[in-house]
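Sequence, structure tokens quoted for completeness.
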Amino acid sequence: ITGGRRFTRIATNDATLYTQPEGEYLDGNFDVVVQRDDSAASQFIPSEGKGIGLDFFFEYETQNNNKVSVSVENYGTLFWNRYSTILHIDSAFRFEGIDVSDLFNFNDSLRNTISIDSTYYQNYLTDKKLGRVNIRMPAQFNISFSHSFLATRFNATAGVSYLAYANAMPDYYAIGNYKMNAKNDISLILSYGGYDAFNAGVKYERQFAHGFSFEIGSNYISSMIAYNKGRSQGAFVSLAKKFQ
């Protein structure tokens, strides 16, 4: 069971952008639908959006120390309340550039026959509708293959994951895991895809008594270091309990 705090969706089936061959003007035509949550109902505990997500996991292990895993996480829908905004904008504009014939004239020199902002707010004031909006939650699909090297403390995993309904690319990854001792594991993660190109990350796991385990790490260490080139950042912390 999950709750939603904020959402904005802009979708279009027909949008064009034309530049005059000599660069004299730029023509734009767009037909978009803007949907967003009820901004008047924001609370510390999310209540504007309510939904449910399902997780599925299947794992098969062979006698040759190979393991195949298939999983789906967070597959579900969020239902936003009946005060959500639905706005349809169908408009066109021509941008003719900036007039700099007089460098000492500090008046507004932008020559534009229509203001996109004005178009949005005018439609927002006159044509907006209120109603329930349902959206798919980003769902993670994953398939992987693992092999344990019995003579060593190493475990290798290769797989591909896909974040659906989130405009992401398939993410191809490889993980090398080293078991330091009975309670401590460390992993190196290499990936390509998602919202970025190549990324490198690390994960540390600590086992405790009574089936508890603690994990901390990031798949985007390389993007954090080269932050001017990377397009994704993130980190995770988890506490789990295994019941026997």
Remarks:
- The radius of gyration is 25 Å.
- The longest strand covers residues 66-80.
